[in-house]
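Data card: per-record layout.
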Amino acid sequence: MTAAATADPDRHPFWQFSLRVYARPEVAAACLDLQERRGADVNVLLLTVWLASEGRALEAATLDRVLALSRQWQAEVVGPVRAARRAAKALAPGLYLQLKAAELACEQAEQMALAALLADLPAASAPPTAADREHLAAAGLRACLPAPVTADDTAPLAVLAAAAAG
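The structure for this 166-residue chain is written out next.
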């Protein structure tokens, strides 16, 4: 990662990857489904997919730190802004747009905090195949969700795992 990518959140590889992948309608729908049904943090899902796309995975201890940071960030920062945005949608359209932008800024800040937890995560030892990337993503995504993973989770998880493959 370059110093510029680290210094400028808009240029950070994780943020750029997230914008690109989340723009795919099936990925956005899968993320939002898991967020609404399972309480998953979209940023953690995207982090897992990003790492898998690079042939990397979170070890249990790092995943625990990622999930702890995510829970705190969602409870104290993103969650309240999201609730205010939803409440303002019908009541104050202008405020809704400002809160929508603020929520996106909160999501980006969370991504930078999550990425900072990965400073010591080694690079992949060899370029991963598409099958390797998809397998890493599938395993990582399952680890991010509260057990048990249900049949309703299968389709959105498959969409996200496929996004890691390319």
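Known properties of this structure: The mean pLDDT is 93. DSSP finds eight helices and no strands in the chain.

See the next section for split statistics.
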